[in-house]
Amino acid sequence: MKWRCALTQRWLPAYLDGDPPSFWRERLRSHLARCPACREELAELAEVVRRVKSTAVPEPEPRFWQNFNQELHLKLAQSVPAPPPSRVFKLPYLLGAPALALLLIWVAVGYLNPERSVLAPTPQMAKQERAIQERAAEKMVAKPRVTAPSPETTGVVAFVAQNGEEMSPDDDLTGLRGDLDSTLAGMTEQEKEAFLKRLRQHEKDGSCLRKISVIFWA
Amino acid sequence: MTDPQLVARAQEGDLPAFEELVKKYQREIYGLAYRLVLDAEEAKDLTQQAFMQAFVHIKGFRQQAQFRTWLFRIAINQCYNYLKNKKKFGDPVDADNFVLVGKDSPEEDLIAQDERRRLYAALTRLPAKQRAVITLKLEQGLSYEEISRVLGGTAGAARVNYCQAIKTLKKYLKNEDEHEVAVRSYPKMVTRVSRR
Predict the structure, then answer these.
(1) Are residues B128 and B84 both part of a single domain?
(2) B84 shares a domain with B2
(3) Structural domain of residue B139, as residue ranges?
(4) Which of B15, B19, B167 is facing A80, going by the closest CB pair?
(5) pLDDT band per the 50, 70, 90 thresholds, residue B181
(6) pLDDT (tens digit, 9 = 90+) per residue, B123-141?
(7) Interface residue A110 vs chain B (CB under 8 A)
(8) Are residues B181 and B131 located together in one domain of the fold?
(9) Nearest CB to A80; choose among B13, B44, B116
(10) Is the model's pLDDT at A144 over the cut of 60?
């Protein structure tokens, strides 16, 4: 096959449709007039096109289209999107977020407020509380002597019980918190001041820890 | 009522308007699907699926293209998916199962059926895209510009694809015709051998 025939035959199917640009159409026409091989190729391609066009898709029976339309109608009716729900039904969804926020705030305030105990004490905690109260009552009966801090041990409050045993300040503070007035009654002004300072510091540390634990829990 | 008007009403959820469009294009879409999958029942299902998809996504149709070409594109995508799955899971097309509704005499029917069988056997061997381009060009009468909108690419690419498809189909038809001649001559040889 000559290169000119190869070039021409690339355009032959489009030539059958009258599609190629006028420049190519003229060149193809002049080549086909001279070349019998390309004319034969064109005839074969025209035959293929004729066969495809003549062999149409078999037309189904009318009943086919009736069934087709009925089935499609059902499918389309099912796929119609449902109307959007009214605003009345949307309201609870809209209120959900603020309600949750309010609940969280209420719980947080309840936990952070030192005056209020949100959680009920567990039986173990109640037992400990009772033991502390009993110890405090015993101390009241024994009238403990509270010594003022020496200048060498500034900032450390030492409590000495009547039987001479030295206790840790934290233990005593925890025990005495239940009955503060009676404890303060037997102290001098200086001792009271030191004791209250220590007590405030202890309370502050405890509440801070509690706040942190509440935030962590939330 | 024109297509854009029907489409606008269908976009507002008017089902009867969409069914008007279905009635208008169902034969063309069915013909395209039939040519691509070569099975009447599958073509029917794919046509229904194409219309379903069109209805679901009609709100996204911006009327920049013709509704017809948009529908062709959906149908071709459905057919491609079907053919891809079939290729994956087997079930080849049997060209002998094609149903023919005859209008002529039984003899003419037989000849036409034979012709159709050979054509479909040749079409089956073509890649799906070439089958689609032949159908869109020769049966639906789309221009290369419209074909490029349906199948993607440029009008030039659609023309090259079409030319290539026709040449390949010619080669396959030649093979089918030669095979037919060989099969027809074979029983004569067998009878000759058996008589000896």
Answers:
(1) no
(2) yes
(3) 124-196
(4) B15
(5) low
(6) 888 888 899 999 898 888 8
(7) no
(8) yes
(9) B13
(10) no
